[in-house]
Amino acid sequence: MNEFVLIFRNDFLPEVKFSPDEMQAIMQHWQEWMGGIAAKGQLADSGNRLSSNGSIVKPNNVITDGPFVEIKEIVSGYIAIKAASIDEAVEIAKGCPILKVGGNVEVRDIIPMSM
């Protein structure tokens, strides 16, 4: 099995707010989806959610705050999965709950570092 990272992105829309009931339903979908992946032995790393706050480090010790208002999308989290191919990883990503709230999933190969 190969490993792939699923990177969750959504539009930067600070005005969009979910009710507590909506948030509970969204979290339930996430738990069911990730639980299904784990039950099949395909969850390599459960990942984490990412804060909307951050900094960017650039060459010459230039540090900027982020994300910026002009950013259309933000990375909100990730998980690592095991799959036989990128096509299988894409099939797994198609079930991601973020797709139901207008987000998207980037699927990338993880290339192990050889030492």
List keywords for this structure.
single chain, 115 residues, alpha+beta, Alpha-Beta Plaits, two-stranded antiparallel sheet, 24% helix
The CATH topology turns out to be Alpha-Beta Plaits
Quaternary status = single chain
CATH homologous superfamily annotation: Dimeric alpha+beta barrel
- Percent strand: 35-45%
Q: What is the rounded Rg?
A: 16 Å
End-to-end separation in angstroms reads 20 Å
Which architecture name does CATH use? 2-Layer Sandwich
What is the strand arrangement across the widest sheet?
Answer: 2-5-1-6
Judging from the principal axes of the Cα atoms, what is the shape? flat
What's the number of structural domains? 1
Q: Please provide the ordered H/E string of secondary-structure elements.
A: EHEEEEHE
Helix/strand-derived category reads alpha+beta
The stretches of 5 or more residues where confidence is low (pLDDT under 50) are none
What does the average pLDDT come to?
86
Number of helices: 2
Major beta sheet, specifics? 4 strands, antiparallel
Give the helix/strand layout:
Elements: E1 2-11, H1 20-39, E2 43-49, E3 54-58, E4 62-66, E5 73-83, H2 86-93, E6 104-109
Antiparallel strand pairs: 1-5, 1-6, 2-5, 3-4
Tell me what you see in this structure.
By secondary structure, the protein is α+β, with helices and mostly antiparallel strands. It has a single domain (2-13, 21-109), classed as Dimeric alpha+beta barrel (Alpha-Beta Plaits, 2-Layer Sandwich), CATH 3.30.70.1060. The protein has two helices and six strands, in the order βαββββαβ. The strands form two sheets. The protein has a four-stranded antiparallel sheet with strand order 2-5-1-6, with helices on one face. Strands 3-4 form a two-stranded antiparallel sheet. A hairpin with a 3-residue loop joins strand 3 and strand 4. The longest helix has 20 residues, at 20-39. It starts with a strand and ends in a 6-residue tail after the last strand.
